[in-house]
Amino acid sequence: MTPDELKAIVRTVPDFPAPGIRFRDITTLIGHGEGFAAAVAHLADRARAAGAEAVAGMEARGFIFGAAVAVTLGVGFVPVRKPGKLPVETISADYALEYGSDRLEIDPGAVAAGQKVAIVDDLIATGGTALAAAALLRKAGAQVPAALFAIDLPDLGGADRLRAEGIAVEALMQFEGD
């Protein structure tokens, strides 16, 4: 399936989580066998082209896409977790949300020095989560050549923020004005 065909599968939910917001819901995409497989194949092709030796995904929907891409490539998956979820010593990064902040953690032993790790997530909006994940991976010694997403909301500028940090960004589809 083409990215345009995949875009037609994504459900738009009006006025969620607040009036005036059009929420792009990937539940319909991951529930569509052929569509989900095609999205994973497209993302895996891009990760392979970036030289990915591992794939990192952020909790929770990044686990869905990232783990599937890692399996497709035959490489390891690095879970980027919410605080307190890993049973070992971790490194962490705080990042800004629209109303406050949050934190991500990784096991620094999950990546090797110099290893090329592609970030994979369902959606890029402001880029805060992906930037925090990239900072953690780099702090652990990895290279982050690319960040790959099923959906980009370009008006929110997240992809540009990642590019400013030297990370190539690709998305299978874009939804303008959101």
Description:
By secondary structure, the protein is an alpha/beta fold. The protein has one domain (3-174): Rossmann fold (3-Layer(aba) Sandwich). It contains six helices and nine strands. It has helices spanning 3-9, 27-30, 33-49, 61-73, 128-139, 158-164; strands spanning 11-14, 22-25, 54-58, 76-80, 91-97, 100-106, 117-124, 146-152, 168-174. The strands form three sheets. It has a five-stranded parallel sheet, sandwiched between helices. Strands 1-2 form a two-stranded antiparallel sheet. The chain has a two-stranded antiparallel ribbon with strand order 5-6. Helix 1 packs across helix 3 and helix 3 packs across helix 4 (61-73). The two termini are 24 Å apart. Its EC number is 2.4.2.7. Residues 32-144 form the Phosphoribosyltransferase domain. It holds the Pfam family Pribosyltran.
Quote the distance from N terminus to C terminus: 24 Å
Poorly predicted ranges: none
Strand count, sense and barrel status of the largest sheet are: 5 strands, parallel
As a percent range, the share of helical residues equals: 25-40%
Shape: globular
Please compute the radius of gyration using only Cα atoms. 15 Å
H/E series, N to C?
HEEHHEHEEEEHEHE
Overall tally of domains: 1
- The proportion of strand residues reads 25-35%
> How many helical stretches?
6
Number of strands: 9
- Roughly what is the average pLDDT, rounded to an integer? 95
- Here the CATH topology equals Rossmann fold
Which strand order spans the largest sheet, edge to edge or round the barrel?
Answer: 4-3-7-8-9
What CATH first level would be assigned? Alpha Beta
Overall SS class: alpha/beta
Per CATH, which architecture? Answer: 3-Layer(aba) Sandwich
InterPro entries: Ade_phspho_trans (IPR005764), PRTase-like (IPR029057), PRTase_dom (IPR000836), UPRTase/APRTase (IPR050054)
Family: Belongs to the purine/pyrimidine phosphoribosyltransferase family.
Subcellular location: Cytoplasm
Domain Phosphoribosyltransferase: 32-144
